[in-house]
UniProtKB/TrEMBL annotation:
Belongs to the EamA transporter family. One of its GO terms (cellular component) is plasma membrane. It comes from the Bacteria. This is EamA domain-containing protein. The chain crosses the membrane at residues 32-52, 64-84, 90-108, 176-195, 210-229. It is a multi-pass membrane protein. It comes from Mycobacterium dioxanotrophicus.
Amino acid sequence: MPNRTADLALLGVAVVWGSSYLATKELASGDTVFAVLALRFVIAVAALAVLAGSRLRRITPEELASGMLCGVVLWAVYSCETYGVTRTSASNAGLLMALTIVVTPLLCGARSVPARFYAAGATAVAGCVLLTQSQGFGPPGVGDVVIGAAAVLRAGHVALLGRMTAGRELDVTRMALVQLMTVAILSVSLASATGEPVDTIALGMRRGDWLVLLYLALACTVFAFVVQVRAVQRSTPARVSLLLGTEPLWAAVIGAAVASDPVTVAGVCGAALVVCGAVWGQRVLAPVDGPAARDESRVLPG
């Protein structure tokens, strides 16, 4: 995959991730969160298993254990993210998830983080505050709080994944598959206990709903993962961070253009601060982290 093609592929990943918030909002409701997650990840697991093929036979106990542990945290991320987007706008959800970018280096124990990174992080946080007040000053909504928790949990997932894989020869694809399977199993188990069971939701879905679900499972999960794993090997850390860092911008644009998310002065200023802070923070860290920095927060697609 040539560098230009890799860049375009990574930009495509950022676009589909940005659109995933609106797609999730269209499909899920407060009492169908786990059922939707179950259906999404069962499909994703099946597709990734077909692509992995014979490599699955070589899965090691270490990959299985590490993948299951990281998968539990990943399930918490997706649960908060999916529920949160049902209670806030797709634009806000995508932009607030950008907090992951500034929280991750702190949880990972990054050494010698430049002072400029904290300035970038403060810029992004200020933008998030403005976003939560875009409809008038007051306490942030439930959806915004839950999405913020999802962003912190995703940063924790990155830190855990980094520690579990440090100095070990673990297959990225096999670990990803175990994590996705863990998300699917936990979601299936909890769907009936907390809301609508999976089979009831599946039988009641219309053709359009199935198309959205397939988009989330195949484009936003499997396609994004496969493209990223290949593309990051042919690009630089700075370019990877910059291109994937445009995800919140796409979330805001798609939310406003397709779903007519409200556009206010505070919201626009907040979005600008979030995107600038996120991109600035990633560009500050890229030279420090060196070639190994491949935006670990995207080992699994969002």
